[in-house]
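Let's practice the habit of predicting before peeking. Look at the sequence and jot down your guess about where helices and strands might fall. Then scroll down.
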Amino acid sequence: MAAWSEDTSLFTASEVVLSQYENRAWRKELQRKVNVLMDTKLAKQISPETYITKNKLLKQDFAECDRRSRILGNEALSRRRRSKPRLVLPIRGGRRVWHQLPMDFS
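Done guessing? Here is the structure:
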């Protein structure tokens, strides 16, 4: 995967979306590699030691991919929350009523 910046708060909204897209593509590539590794193992084209080593590296990559996915998802969610103001109306029937304010795109 390409270089990664831990501070996603510096990303623009489009960079967050692009990073999510790239991360999903990376995950698909990792899954393809797992399938190829399993096929070579089942066909006995690699030794058990080689399989274990490659599998361990793929698991580390999956863990990093999942970590990045959570970070990017949280960043996208926090941006959505900040960008949509809410209006609290009086309590109706014993509970508060929340309404989304319409977004002004002028």
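How did you do? The first strand starts at residue 86 and ends at 92.
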